[in-house]
Amino acid sequence: MSSTASLIAIGDALRAVHHDHESMTGQSAFEEMRALYTIRNLIDHHAAQLTGTLERLRVARDHGRTTRELLIVMGFAPSVAQRYVRIAGALALLPTLSAHAVDGVVPSEHVDAIVRGVEHIGKRSPEPIDDAMRLYYVTDLLGQHFSGATPAEIADRARTLGNVLADDTPDGLPAAEDRSINTLTKSKTTDGRLHVDADLDLEVGEKFQAAMERYGAPRPEPDGSPDARSTERRLADALDTILDIAAGGGNDMSIVPRTHVLVTIPADNPQLSALEHMGSITRATMNRLACDPTITPLLVDGETVPLDVGREKRLFTPAQRKALHVRDKCCIKCGAPATRTQAHHIAHWADGGETCLENGCLLCPSCHADVHHNGWDVYIGADRHAWLIPPTTVDPEQRALPSYNRRTLTLDNLPAAA
């Protein structure tokens, strides 16, 4: 019997199945549901394999369409079609995952989460991960599934593994923390409205999420009944409130309620630090966020019990900020106005660096990310001013640069500052 005939026969057999709901026991209902669960998983696996065959045979491409579009035309939901395409393109590289899918023990949603998780981890390393590493990560993520994790929890685990890899790999900046690829587009719709679409790194995303949580929370109606607004409407109203705050001078924290942004730092393993809404972050980003006065670091023990919130004198005081403004005048790297800068700990606060003028400098958010992620270094010279050491990709000789506001001076005495 051909495979097509076999599938048709399976379909006919399923149509003929009759559930005797009146006399069915709880045990028999459970067993039938388990059988259907396995059948569903097997169908999804075969569908993903056939998607790969359709792609290889160019069935859709020879007619100017993509395989995903072909599946949608056939009646598959867009999200299901995209899932099949992703799985089809990855299973050949993930034989262990494929073997479990063949047995029908892993749902396609979990297979897809593992596929996306391994791809996500790979993007966090400057060099491609090899087969042994790929097997290690697949085994870890499969273990999450068999322990009862949801697809979202598998994705969170993959992010954590990717952050550990990025921390342990020179220049291993994860895409989730790469500020340079942030985008926001806006376009007017035909009915005169504005459509906004943004792709943000996790730090900006965390601030956005925290602001939405604060200003978009449900509020009772005047009569005390529950908030009648939809979630989408509440978030749009929250954005309106944030824009009003910005227009009215939102920097005055004595007038404007502060949005709460929290980063949790395990005391025994800072590599597992995480933001409240956006999840896992690398050690480098954790160090950078510790300089941000709008973010509160929470130190916890192995059972996530708080040990300390912040640290005495973690943040630069207003007087110290003024002193930095007087000395640096602007971002020491690019010259952005001082009002747009953050006070950076040269020796990381998380590593015991002191909060003092000799251990601080002004950096705008973008340059702050460069110092923590892209190989730039800062030190205080003998002249008691900040100096920058560029990465070898910028200057192979890594010649020291004075802070931005002092670059009009002569560099004849450059060695004297070192």
From TrEMBL:
<dbReference type="InterPro" id="IPR002711">
    <property type="entry name" value="HNH"/>
</dbReference>
<comment type="similarity">
    <text>Belongs to the Rv1128c/1148c/1588c/1702c/1945/3466 family.</text>
</comment>
<dbReference type="InterPro" id="IPR003870">
    <property type="entry name" value="DUF222"/>
</dbReference>
<dbReference type="Pfam" id="PF01844">
    <property type="entry name" value="HNH"/>
</dbReference>
<feature type="region of interest" description="Disordered">
    <location>
        <begin position="213"/>
        <end position="232"/>
    </location>
</feature>
<dbReference type="GO" id="GO:0003676">
    <property type="term" value="F:nucleic acid binding"/>
</dbReference>
<dbReference type="Pfam" id="PF02720">
    <property type="entry name" value="DUF222"/>
</dbReference>
<feature type="domain" description="HNH nuclease">
    <location>
        <begin position="319"/>
        <end position="369"/>
    </location>
</feature>
<dbReference type="GO" id="GO:0004519">
    <property type="term" value="F:endonuclease activity"/>
</dbReference>
<protein>
    <recommendedName>
        <fullName>HNH nuclease domain-containing protein</fullName>
    </recommendedName>
</protein>
<dbReference type="GO" id="GO:0008270">
    <property type="term" value="F:zinc ion binding"/>
</dbReference>
<dbReference type="InterPro" id="IPR003615">
    <property type="entry name" value="HNH_nuc"/>
</dbReference>
